[in-house]
């Protein structure tokens, strides 16, 4: 409850929105109840039969180091939420808190899938044609081995099959060019290894300017590259959408007229840009764990946090961890 820039002020209205859409949900909330009560009252959620509140005043700060966060995690809202998932009291965890702490605690408390060396932050990237592309890793692993990149391809392939309903997903490696000789020695080596995989539909390299072009179904990269690419995409989309939005109290008639004409001329493209609005695709799952753990963007608003909740629900209903484990076992 306490994660993200605004904590309960974002999460509680998101929960109200989620319950309106899906009455079968039950929420276990972990955080400072004194801060939450006024908001629970505002959204008529206090004493709600679908909500159980577990009070704790211990919080992992957003800006402390990973090692310090782990040491200070006892009785924190984040750790208690993950422990509830570990113990089977909850089927999934959604948090907007410290990313490093969430990943570290999740890997510490929740068993990984068999033979998975490192889980990867995975999300669905919206394409301009209304479809989606799976992308991983988005920040869980700054440095990875050749073998781990191949594991990401295997997990991404199975994730796309379940979440996107694809039979033989196209897989690409993110690189600075599509030519065979482009990129680091590691990327070139993994490229050759994936080309020899008969069980994967590997189609080669993809460049970052094609992330939303739907030229592939799964994009593989290390966490450092993926995080930079995703944030650049999100920032560009938000800035362009902001250019089209009408500013209130704009007294400049010429500027208002110009903005209106731009909307008319580029309306079709504006609608497409709204589809790739990062708020509508908030949430990255820590793929490779035996339970569902979803990281929401720390700056998410209530609508975006509700999308992260929906993202977790889709994976729980699709039994993603079990289906990935079954798919991986068939490769052995």
From TrEMBL:
GO terms for molecular function: phosphate:acyl-[acyl carrier protein] acyltransferase activity. Pathway: Lipid metabolism; phospholipid metabolism. Pfam families: FA_synthesis. Keywords: Acyltransferase, Cytoplasm, Lipid biosynthesis, Lipid metabolism, Phospholipid biosynthesis, Phospholipid metabolism, Transferase. Its EC number is 2.3.1.274. The keyword Heme does not apply. It is an enzyme of class 2 (transferase). Gene3D superfamilies: Isopropylmalate Dehydrogenase (3.40.718.10). Homodimer. Probably interacts with PlsY. Belongs to the PlsX family. This is Phosphate acyltransferase. It comes from Mannheimia varigena USDA-ARS-USMARC-1296.
């Amino acid at each position: 409850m306490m994660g993200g820039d605004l904590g309960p002020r974002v999460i509680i209205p998101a929960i109200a929105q989620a319950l309106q859409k899906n009455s079968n949900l039950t929420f276990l909330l972990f955080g400072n109840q004194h801060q939450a009560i006024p908001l629970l009252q505002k959204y008529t959620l206090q004493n709600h039969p679908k909500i159980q509140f577990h009070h704790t005043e211990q919080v992992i700060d957003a800006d402390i180091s990973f090692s310090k966060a782990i040491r200070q995690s006892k009785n924190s809202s984040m750790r208690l939420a993950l422990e509830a998932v570990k113990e089977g009291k909850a089927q999934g965890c959604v948090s907007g808190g410290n990313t490093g702490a969430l990943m570290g605690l999740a890997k510490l408390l929740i068993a990984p899938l068999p033979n998975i060396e490192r889980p990867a932050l995975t999300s669905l990237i919206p394409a301009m044609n209304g479809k989606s592309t799976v992308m991983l890793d988005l920040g869980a692993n700054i440095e990875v081995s050749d073998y781990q990149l191949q594991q990401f391809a295997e997990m991404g392939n199975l994730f796309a099959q379940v979440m996107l309903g694809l039979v033989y997903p196209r897989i690409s490696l993110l690189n600075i060019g599509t030519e065979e000789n482009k990129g680091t020695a590691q990327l070139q080596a993994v490229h050759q290894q994936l080309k020899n995989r008969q069980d994967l539909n590997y189609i080669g390299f993809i460049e970052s300017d094609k992330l939303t072009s739907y030229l592939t179904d799964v994009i593989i990269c290390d966490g450092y590259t993926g995080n930079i690419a995703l944030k650049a995409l999100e920032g560009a989309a938000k800035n362009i959408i902001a250019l089209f939005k009408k500013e209130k109290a704009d007294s400049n008639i010429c500027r208002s007229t110009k903005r209106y004409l731009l909307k008319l001329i580029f309306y079709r493209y504006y609608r497409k840009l709204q589809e790739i609005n990062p708020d509508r695709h908030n949430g990255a799952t820590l793929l490779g764990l035996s339970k569902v753990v979803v990281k929401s963007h720390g700056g998410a608003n209530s609508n975006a946090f509700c999308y992260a909740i929906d993202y977790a629900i889709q994976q729980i209903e699709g039994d993603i961890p079990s289906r990935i484990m079954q798919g991986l076992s068939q490769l052995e």
